Structure formats: C-alpha cells, structure tokens
Amino acid sequence: MIADRSYSTVTGSEDEIRAHLKQMTGRLTRPERAIFNIHVPPYNSRLDTAPLLGQDLKVKTSAGAQVTAPVGSVAVREAIEEIQPLPSSVAARWW
Fold it and tell me: Other C-beta atoms within 10 Å of 79: how many?
C-alpha cells in the first residue's frame, strides 16, 4: 500500500499534480492492482461538470439554462488512462 498523507489536498498547477502522481505511481510494484482515491476528478469525466463562469465570476447562461464545462484535472485523467487502476473513487469532503 502506498499512501501519501503529506499531499492530502491537491492544490497546484496541472504540472505539479502530474509530477506528484508520476512520483506516486512510479512506486507501484503492481500497477494493475492499484486503487486510486483522489479528490480532484479526472477532466471531462462527467464527475467534473460545473457551471461556466464569466470574467465577472457570474454563471454563464444560454437560453435561460446554465452553461457547464469540465473542470477536472487533465493530469489525473492521464494517470488513470496510463495506469488503468481498479475501479476507483473520487473522494469528496462533505464536512
């Protein structure tokens, strides 16, 4: 088992997230048995759909409906596609 509590909150650029994930996945001895538990959802996974904001930080609308866009991490998606972990979850903080 590999756990990294020192980086429990992913904050940073895509490059920083990518580097951290590469470091973590590089330590896997059996990547086919990996289980990812990552807070930030993978980009364009439908888990990352959020209202699109304008420059004024107001929600954009079209024909009276909110416009949405993917907001997840490209680096997380790349890691999942590369490693192909077992079905995993996106952790969410509810508190």
Answer: 23
